[in-house]
């Protein structure tokens, strides 16, 4: 009877336990422990496995297609869009390959670099398109090697458009997408997941629909893992195509490409490029409203929603691929109406994870970069292994220097004029700097009526969690304790808590209270006297730009400040205050005064000199209250300090 | 001003931060993260460093000398004594070298194996004595290699006693301890800490006191790290010797050897061997009471205490070395009266750590071996690395087989006759087994008037912590839920809590409730139905001797059931329920029924068949309540199970 119940222990471990003699000392040599916490299966599976798992679970998904931007500013905006649309929970995004735009180069607008940024800095599973015609094998191999090096794991293998009017086969080159698929498999074995294109109406250049289906089958049999289709206008088109594919033995996933009509001109252009015909019933609706963008978009959304519903209801479709044209509104609207948009994104960890395969196991980071995760990823990109389970005694964390403040994915979203409005066209003294910090905290407009929505250390408005501390933060910033990072103490809130929760449900999350700020040496001297009273309770690190460092941390050990306890899992402690990393963060934190703020002003101008003075003379302080079950004592520490100063 | 305050950040990290350019991507290659939590510096320092640190901190210490036992039974007792006396907190113990007892062999009574057991199984810092006369270099090297392989790190280098009456120099052999010191340093570099003997009255064979001091200096200059002296009867003797040593340039620690007189005969024998003269004033006291052991011991304790006080008060002595003669009472009494005995041993981790250098970083173990730590160490002795920070996905933990139930350090302390009295001369059915379990829990005598002080799975009486659960445990054992391991849930008690505390002070410890038991398949079937109601809250593993395994653990991941949060440190999680290890523990847990219990009875006897029946048909069950902040639900689970059965 009992044997008939759930047997969820894997066969391999049962057999190991049956044949006990095989577990002797001999085999202990290959006792290589993987300390990977499988907190989030998404981080550990390849794309085709994620698809399979989602399909098996009956869990519908979506993906988003983007093209590389033309300008550096557009790149900054696209990355913000990745962050926002990534929150909706796409299974992957893909980035098209623009042969004219030097797609494999290191330019910030290249396909390669945009895909790299999506994977590494935005944490998105990403497919990089790649075309093969008019390129040498060596070029292609070079691109693939570079993609692999950057952590890209998925390629959409395409032929690409011919250069001239007529298509001519090249003798030694790649002539068809199938050649590229074969090349990837022969040169990179099973490393990449490969996607190929399917044409529900047949490729415009194919001899026939049937011939095109046979080409598709060749691509799949050459090693493609799944198919994304060209856009189409009727669900029947796709469903027939899918049945025809299955009939000739194509069994891999086939994902319909959805194109929400967003405007008259974009539709016309796309139709021209793809050589598709727009059905008469759609033309009939659009023509009369062609100058009314909003009306067309509404119609497009309506049309897409009903077509997607038909596809999903067919039971044959498990995922939907959206041609976004780099726009947010229409696609997001369609997804929300379909119920596919993730309205309550659960964070697997308190910080945004990177999708680079070598960072799969990473689950601990210093708290200092909490608001600058992309900078953290950049400064640790050369690491070969990443801390997990523990940060450890990082006697040599070897952070890369941050000199490249111009890098588009590290840039402020706001242009210089806006920053000046927020942070002051002209500063009159340290107090005007206190005011900027205070306005950022309160959300109130500054004396010129502008809201301060970002700071050099934080490109976004105050986090919801920090809002819990708003009143106290306002008070201390007014008096020159210039806070740049903080968290409240949490003594076991459910992991599903909308503000401080993270990780799987059913768990409990904890935090030690943390406060990080710049302050004058006068404040710091008083603070040090006050801290003597809190010697065992509060750990502190205090450093100035020259690296003079004062701390009571034992043996330079890290202090865990965020951790979670989950059912059936080991403890996860994703955030630490690491004394050694703090000295690297210090360089960046001080440099931001100059790079982001002082440089807004003319050299030698009074405003610039005020920022320079703060940079040269203030201290960067962090405080941790170790007694997380008690009321946060850090506000008392600060109050005591002000009292001593009076 | 601030620069004059505490600068506790090490110079190296300051300079690293100053010369920021050296921290670029080049150096990240040697980014080898040490995940060692320095929870307990004692585990990470070599003996001479511990001495130095204790001396610098003004922290007095003691050490204990033992000789190897003559019989296997005596070895079992000596290991229990190591465990008990180890709790008093010796800085180290040492084990003498008995040339006549095949000291380097694998016999359970050899010096080598006793030292090995002290280090690896009792977790004691240990010095192994080694003599060199009448041995070849190869023999000596062989012994040293073996010692190193076993994890011994300290050698007391001695000449040894001559074989005949007269001492004769061997041409190619070792003639003096200094030869052995040189040999160790030349063959093993700085691996071992080396101790040598000092003679406060001069070596009996030395030409003179001064000549002997010069020999001692030679030994130190050849590489010895510290000196332990021969016993003496007056503190002045030692203090003069120490000054004389310092006068000729001996600066290493010199530890006085203390011999509490414990009996007339042992004193006479020792004096004869060491060729020392007992001062007249001592003889005068002892002779009249020579047949009264208790009186002599009391006097010996008195004498030792006052001499030790004089030594400590001199300010020249930081540690005391006790010649225990393998006895507990007198030495313990002296140490308690001196205030050196650790009355409140703080546990660095919830389980006893091993002192083998390769286990230094180990800080996670499966909970199953909580009462059988020596068996756990034995079964993992071939591992090359030990889990720390996380247990990890131990898909191949490769535990060694436990076939060697006869090994003296795994043996029950109780002989067969005692076990029969406790567990029943004759069993009449499964209920008589339930009774044995119940008596062990309650501490009440069984129906024949014998207390059950140990069980096959637990060689000691119920742990204080388990006592917290006594009432519930009694109730369930009576009804056939035969518990072998359990812990209550703890939601943040101070780390100094006398019952459940561990680790440094100022921290908080946590536990998930745990219950492990054997039960019939009838009970297990009902239990499984009940567990459906607790699906997300309770993790379970249920297995029978054949390895049929039922669990709801996700992906065979370990579940942390003990963890601690400390000031300025990362999270420590020393105990997990690991599904894979459970299948290895299962073999041992079931085998103990047969090896320790069934085999007490004649083959084919009804008693033996009852145990065999349980072994063949019962299931081993473990339950974890993940909701540690709520009231433990496992008792409700068991109650529901019994209710369902009724």
From TrEMBL, chains A, B:
Carries keyword Flavoprotein? yes
* Record's compositionally biased regions (Low complexity): 8-26
Family matches, as InterPro entries: FAD-linked_oxidoreductase-like, Fadh2_euk, Mehydrof_redctse-like, MTHFR_C
Query: Which ranges carry the MTHFR SAM-binding regulatory domain?
Result: 346-646
Where is the region Disordered? 1-46
- What keywords appear on the UniProt entry? Allosteric enzyme, FAD, Flavoprotein, NADP, Oxidoreductase, Phosphoprotein
EC number, UniProt record: 1.5.1.53
Check the record and name the CDD domains matching this protein: MTHFR
Question: Which GO biological-process labels does this protein carry?
Answer: methionine biosynthetic process; tetrahydrofolate interconversion
Q: Which cofactor does it need?
A: FAD
Task: Describe which pathway this protein belongs to, using the record's wording.
Answer: One-carbon metabolism; tetrahydrofolate interconversion
Chemical reaction(s) catalysed = (6S)-5-methyl-5,6,7,8-tetrahydrofolate + NADP(+) = (6R)-5,10-methylene-5,6,7,8-tetrahydrofolate + NADPH + H(+)
The record's GO molecular-function terms, alphabetically, read:
FAD binding; methylenetetrahydrofolate reductase (NADPH) activity
Query: Partners and quaternary state?
Result: Homodimer.
Would you identify the family this protein belongs to, as annotated?
A: Belongs to the methylenetetrahydrofolate reductase family.
Function (record text): Catalyzes the conversion of 5,10-methylenetetrahydrofolate to 5-methyltetrahydrofolate, a cosubstrate for homocysteine remethylation to methionine. Represents a key regulatory connection between the folate and methionine cycles.
Identify this protein by name: Methylenetetrahydrofolate reductase (NADPH)
Organism of provenance: Mionectes macconnelli (McConnell's flycatcher)
Which gene does this sequence derive from? Mthfr
